[in-house]
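User: structure tokens for this one?
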Amino acid sequence: MTESSDFWDFYWEMRLQPLQNLGKRAAILAASRLIRQMSQPPGRPVRLLELGCGEGQIIGALVDGHAQVTAIQESVGVDYLAAAIETCRRAYPGMRFIVGDFTDAALLAALGQFQVVLLVNALHEVYSAAYSEPLGEVDVTLAKERVARAFAGAAERVAPGGYLLLFDGLEPPGDPRQKIRLRFLTRQAREHFETFVRQYRPFRISPRALGSPNRVELSRRDFTRYITKSIFLGKALWQTERYESYQYYNENEFRAAFARAGLTIRELRTLTVDDEKWRRTVAIESPGESFPEEHILIIGQKD
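Assistant:
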């Protein structure tokens, strides 16, 4: 079987058509390149670990896709949801899945080290779990401490010369308190926003009306969460997504975390996946402001 980039581009285009989550697609494509790179020369064994694997969409696709062309010696998925792990075990019976909290240092240490470690949409759940009832929102200081410890633990599982791939939400640059003025283009869009404000839990969303029913002002922090989380309104996933802040670090904080862990950044990309949709829904009236790139993909190599 050919290993050419053209072949793999075509393979993943066909394989991932049913997967609507463009973020997961970007993570799978990047991880595929890493696995093929790490398995050279042919037959070189690769151990693959995904922390926060959910129902195994990513690690399962990667192991299945490379079964004939790489020597994946072992693949391990870890998630704290027993139901998700049961789904993984049914869908991928030849793989190893563990019910557990990947922030547990003892659990991680028992796994050994891996050539490729994946953290895809995982750390924002660690951050969001630091919700404080007395505060009525996420305790940011505590949440970032927990994220830092979880990331450091994941980095320790990377073998020398191996890679950690992270894909997650991105806090935009600039002052998160900076006010942004919006104009909703339809009544439905405004009603959708009001529902989001009432139901979103990690932070209080505090818009200020600007005279017209369709014009509001809110902070950059609130605006970013609105465009990344309200896409789940009306869907079954909203019952969990409404409790999570997708953003927790800005780009500089991510870079610092990789440096502290002894990981040299080999690739860093920021991206947005819903820009066209939002331009049909809401207009940004503040000069110089635009829809943020709310996702980040980073690949770091263990020195």
